[in-house]
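Suppose you are handed a protein chain with no further information: no name, no annotation, nothing but its sequence. What can you learn? This example shows the usual starting point.
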Amino acid sequence: MFAKAFRVKSNTAIKGSDRRKLRADVTAAFPTLGTDQVTELVPAKEELTIVKLYAHRGDAVTVYVSGGNPILFELEKNLYPTVYTLWSYPDLLPTFTTWPLVLEKLAGGADLMLPGLVVPPAGLPQVQKGDLCAVALVGNRAPVAVGVAAMSTSEMLTSGLKGRGLCVLHTYQDHLWRSGDKSSPPSMAPPLAVDPPDPSEEEASGQADCALPSGLSPPTLQGVEEEVRGRRQLCGEQTLSEAAEDPGVGGPNPDPADCKTLQEQMDELLQQCFLHALKSRVRKADLPLLTSTFLGSHVLSCCPEGRQLDIKKSSYKKLSKFLQHMQQEQILQVKELSKGVESIVAVDWKHPRITSFIIPEPSLTSQTVQEGSREQPYHPPDIKPLYCVPASMSLLFQESGHKKGSLLEGSEVRTLIIDYAKKNDLVDAENNNLVTLDPVLSDSILEKSEQHTVAKLPWDSLLTRCLERLQPAYQVTFPGREPVVRRGRICPIDIALAQRASNKKVTLVRNLEAYGLDPWAVAATLQQHCQASTTVTPAPGARDGLQVQIQGNQVHHLGRLLLGPGT
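A reasonable first move is to predict its three-dimensional structure. Written in C-alpha cells, the prediction is:
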C-alpha cells in the first residue's frame, strides 16, 4: 500500500476527545495490550497528530503520528499498527516468519506467498482469514511487515502451502516507514532457533530449489506455473543456502545483547552518551549549562556511529525525567534558573560512575565498515545566475549572434555591451565615461518618457540598466550531474516561525528541494538534533513542494544544520 509515495491531504493536532476515542479503539482492536501499554502508545499529554493521506492507488488512509513516528494507521475503519509500534510490542500480533531476501519483494509491494514461509517445529500461528498478522525474518523476532491473512492456518496447510498467504499492507523501508525517523529494526532473539539449510542436500537435489532447513515442514511443490512464479518472486532467483550465508541470520547461539528489548538498549545508549559527554566534553567553566544545549551539543554528539539516540524510545521518555534520575544518584544538580528553563548547575566529576566510565574507541574495522555503509555527505550545488535575452532587447544582441531566449552570464553581458558601444563609436569623445545612446540602446534600456530627454549615460548606469531589463535565470549544477537551467530567480530556503493552537510554536522550512535537500532526510536529522517531533507536509501555494514542520522554535538548530558545523 505504501510502496510508492502517498499524497498528504491534511495534518492536524489531535483533540482531547479524539485522543480518548483512539485509546478506546486501540483497546478494542488489540485486547492483549494492558492499560499501561495503551497509555504509553497513545500518551495523554505528548503531541499526537492526525495525518490524512491518499495512497498511490487512491485509498484514503488516516495515520496517527507520535514523537515524529507513525504509530497506527486506519483503513476502512480498521486500525493497524506500524512497524515502529510492533518493535515496542513484538508479540502484539500473530507472527509468520520468512527469509531475509523476501523483504525486498515485500517492500516493493508484493504479497507474502506461502512457499516463502518458514514453518517452525511448533507449527504456524493459528489465524483465521482476515486476521491481522505480522511478518518477521529468520533470526530476528522484530516484525518487518504488517498484513492480513489471505486464508486460515488450516487452509494454508490443506493447500500444501501454495498460493497467497498474507496480503501485505505496510513494511519496513516503505514510504510510511520513511515518514518516521527511518530507524532499523531492533535485534530480538527469536523464540526458537532455526538452523540454516544443508548445502550438501541442496546440491544432491540437482536443482536450485528454495529448500527449507532440516527439522522444518517443507511445502509440497508441484510444477504449477503459479508456484514457479511465486517462488521466483519470493526467492529472487537465489537459493536459501545463499541466504543462510548472510551473517544477519541468527544462529542457535544468539548474542545475549540481542535478548534485550529496544527500550533497554536505548536506556543503555542514553546512559553511555550521558557519561561520555560529562567525562570528555563538559567542563566546569561551561556551567550553568542549559539542559537543551547539553543534549543537542554534547550528548547527541557522543552517540556511536551507526546508532541513533532517541530519548522517547527509552524508559525515561523525557530528558528532564532522565536528569532527575541522575540527580537522585548525585551525579549532577539541575535547577530552574528561569521560568520553564532548566540548567545543569553542578557536576560531581569524582562520582564513581564518571571516573569508572571508559570512553569507547571504535575499532579500525568498524570505522571502515561504517564509512563504507554511511550515506554520502551532502555537497551543495553550484548556482550560477544567468540572464535571458527578451524580445525587446533582441536587436541589441543580434550583432553578437544571440537571439531571443539566449542565456548569458553577467560577464558576457558586460563584454557584449562594451563591444557594441565601441564598434558603433558610441563612446563620448570628450568624456570616456559616457556612452551616447543610439536608437537600439534607447529602445532597449530607456523608459518611453526618457527616450527624448536622455541622450547619454555613464558606463555603470548603462550596464546596470541592461542587466535589469534582461530576464533572470539561473543554472544549478549538482556534483556528478548535468547542469540544469531554470527561468526566474532561485528562491532561498524559507525558515518561518508559526503559532499553532494553545500558543504552541512550530518552525516551518520550505524550498529545500531546490538545493538538493531531501525534506524527509532533513526532518529525520532535525528530530535527532532537536529531540522534537517533525512532520513533512505539502507546502501551501507550491505545486509539488514540501515543507518540514518542527515542534518549537528551532531556528537556531536549523541554521547550524544548514550552514554547517563550522558556523
